[in-house]
Design a protein that fits this description.
The chain is mainly α. The chain contains 7 helices and no strands.
Length: 178
Amino acid sequence: MTIVSSVRQLVETPIYAINEGASPILSYNYGAKRPSRVRKSGIVMGTMILGYTAVMWGLIILAPGTMIRVFSSDHALVQDSIPALKQYFAAFIFMDLQYMGQTVFKSLNKKKQAIFFSLLRKVIIVVPLTYLMPFDFHMGTSGVFLAEPVSNIIGGGMCFITMLCIVLPELKRMEQTS
């Protein structure tokens, strides 16, 4: 799990940088009542995140040993880590939806939604799945690693869809009143 967590941190750091770089741009344009720029900034942020994640996800799925060897040269450990890494990152691209949704919520001063979706994915979805999948669904350690992609799909999807349903109509109203 340590290697999987290390790979995740390595892969996520540029995503955090893109989000944090886009956040003040989103906030400023939202406050300045420039909805088209908020939309454009969100699209640029999303495109950058999805493009980067697609490349990294492809590397992890197609050449997982390369990523693992950054942290260990032990052949047996590398071989044992490959299935866990692939399982854990199976739906990593859906995590982008969570990152984008939360960044937009945070940037547009919608703190309640940002906090809710963070708690939803990590506490309400991941924690129970980490217990249920290995034991109740008899998946063993694979269940622990698969809890993450399941939560990425459910939590990320719900966060992004909610963000679209809340923010887009608000931006449209803002355009109409300008």
